[in-house]
Amino acid sequence: SWCAPCLEEIPLLKDLKKKYDGTQLSIISISVDDSQKDWRAAMIKSELKDKQYLATGGWNSALINKFRIQTIPRFLFVNPEGVIVNSQAKLPSQGIEEEFELLNLQMQSQL
Q1: pLDDT, tens digit, for every residue of 19-38?
Q2: Sheet of 52-54: strands edge to edge?
Q3: What is the pLDDT of residues 34-75, one digit of tens each?
Q4: Res. 108: pLDDT tops 80
Protein backbone atom coordinates (compact mmCIF):
# COMPACT_ATOMS: atom_id res chain seq x y z
CA SER A 1 0.00 0.00 0.00
CA TRP A 2 2.96 2.33 0.63
CA CYS A 3 5.71 1.07 -1.71
CA ALA A 4 5.89 3.37 -4.74
CA PRO A 5 7.98 0.97 -6.90
CA CYS A 6 5.54 -1.84 -6.06
CA LEU A 7 2.57 0.27 -7.09
CA GLU A 8 4.31 1.16 -10.37
CA GLU A 9 4.60 -2.54 -11.26
CA ILE A 10 0.88 -3.27 -10.76
CA PRO A 11 -0.38 -2.37 -14.28
CA LEU A 12 2.28 -4.60 -15.85
CA LEU A 13 1.60 -7.35 -13.35
CA LYS A 14 -2.10 -7.28 -14.18
CA ASP A 15 -1.31 -7.59 -17.90
CA LEU A 16 0.97 -10.57 -17.24
CA LYS A 17 -1.59 -12.31 -15.06
CA LYS A 18 -4.21 -11.90 -17.76
CA LYS A 19 -1.90 -13.06 -20.56
CA TYR A 20 -0.58 -16.13 -18.74
CA ASP A 21 -3.70 -17.25 -16.89
CA GLY A 22 -3.97 -21.04 -17.06
CA THR A 23 -0.30 -21.72 -17.80
CA GLN A 24 2.02 -24.01 -15.86
CA LEU A 25 3.33 -21.18 -13.67
CA SER A 26 1.81 -18.55 -11.45
CA ILE A 27 3.17 -15.24 -10.26
CA ILE A 28 2.59 -14.47 -6.61
CA SER A 29 3.09 -11.19 -4.82
CA ILE A 30 3.91 -10.78 -1.17
CA SER A 31 3.35 -7.56 0.70
CA VAL A 32 5.18 -6.50 3.84
CA ASP A 33 2.58 -3.97 4.94
CA ASP A 34 2.30 -3.51 8.68
CA SER A 35 -1.43 -2.89 8.40
CA GLN A 36 -3.72 -5.60 7.04
CA LYS A 37 -6.40 -2.93 6.58
CA ASP A 38 -4.10 -0.77 4.40
CA TRP A 39 -3.01 -3.82 2.41
CA ARG A 40 -6.61 -4.91 1.73
CA ALA A 41 -7.52 -1.38 0.67
CA ALA A 42 -4.57 -1.30 -1.74
CA MET A 43 -5.59 -4.68 -3.24
CA ILE A 44 -9.14 -3.43 -3.78
CA LYS A 45 -7.93 -0.17 -5.32
CA SER A 46 -5.49 -1.93 -7.64
CA GLU A 47 -8.05 -4.64 -8.52
CA LEU A 48 -5.54 -7.42 -7.85
CA LYS A 49 -7.50 -10.46 -6.83
CA ASP A 50 -5.49 -13.66 -6.74
CA LYS A 51 -2.16 -14.82 -5.41
CA GLN A 52 -1.62 -11.68 -3.35
CA TYR A 53 -0.30 -12.39 0.11
CA LEU A 54 0.50 -10.40 3.21
CA ALA A 55 3.59 -11.40 5.17
CA THR A 56 2.20 -10.95 8.65
CA GLY A 57 4.91 -9.63 10.87
CA GLY A 58 6.25 -7.38 8.11
CA TRP A 59 10.00 -7.54 7.64
CA ASN A 60 10.29 -9.95 10.57
CA SER A 61 7.92 -12.55 9.15
CA ALA A 62 9.01 -16.16 8.60
CA LEU A 63 8.22 -15.88 4.89
CA ILE A 64 10.41 -12.83 4.39
CA ASN A 65 13.25 -14.52 6.28
CA LYS A 66 12.85 -17.87 4.48
CA PHE A 67 13.28 -16.30 1.04
CA ARG A 68 15.80 -13.72 2.27
CA ILE A 69 13.72 -10.87 0.92
CA GLN A 70 15.55 -7.64 1.56
CA THR A 71 14.00 -5.37 -1.05
CA ILE A 72 10.59 -4.94 -2.59
CA PRO A 73 8.92 -5.39 -4.94
CA ARG A 74 9.76 -9.08 -5.19
CA PHE A 75 8.15 -11.64 -7.49
CA LEU A 76 8.13 -15.44 -7.29
CA PHE A 77 7.17 -18.15 -9.79
CA VAL A 78 5.15 -21.08 -8.47
CA ASN A 79 4.32 -24.29 -10.32
CA PRO A 80 0.91 -26.05 -10.16
CA GLU A 81 2.08 -28.18 -7.22
CA GLY A 82 2.81 -25.03 -5.22
CA VAL A 83 6.57 -25.39 -5.47
CA ILE A 84 8.49 -22.15 -5.87
CA VAL A 85 10.61 -22.55 -9.00
CA ASN A 86 12.09 -19.05 -9.00
CA SER A 87 12.20 -16.95 -5.84
CA GLN A 88 14.17 -14.15 -7.51
CA ALA A 89 12.14 -13.37 -10.63
CA LYS A 90 12.72 -10.10 -12.41
CA LEU A 91 10.21 -7.29 -12.07
CA PRO A 92 7.53 -6.92 -14.76
CA SER A 93 9.23 -3.72 -15.91
CA GLN A 94 12.62 -5.48 -16.12
CA GLY A 95 11.89 -8.56 -18.22
CA ILE A 96 9.92 -10.97 -16.06
CA GLU A 97 7.93 -12.00 -19.14
CA GLU A 98 10.93 -13.57 -20.85
CA GLU A 99 11.79 -15.54 -17.70
CA PHE A 100 8.20 -16.61 -17.32
CA GLU A 101 7.91 -17.83 -20.91
CA LEU A 102 11.16 -19.81 -20.69
CA LEU A 103 10.21 -21.56 -17.46
CA ASN A 104 6.69 -22.21 -18.72
CA LEU A 105 8.04 -23.82 -21.91
CA GLN A 106 10.45 -25.95 -19.88
CA MET A 107 7.62 -27.14 -17.67
CA GLN A 108 5.35 -27.92 -20.64
CA SER A 109 8.10 -30.04 -22.23
CA GLN A 110 8.30 -32.09 -19.03
CA LEU A 111 4.61 -33.05 -19.21
Answers
A1: 887 777 777 778 888 888 98
A2: 52-54, 26-31, 75-78, 84-89
A3: 888 988 898 888 888 777 888 888 889 988 888 888 888 888
A4: no
Cα–Cα distance measured from residue 102 to residue 111, given in angstroms and rounded to the nearest whole number: 15
Amino acid letter at 5? P
The amino acid at residue 68 is R
3-state secondary structure the chain: CCCHHHHHHHHHHHHHHHHCCCCCCEEEEEECCCCHHHHHHHHHHHCCCCCEEECCCHHHCHHHHHCCCCCCCCEEEECCCCCEEEEEECCHHHCHHHHHHHHHHHHHHCC
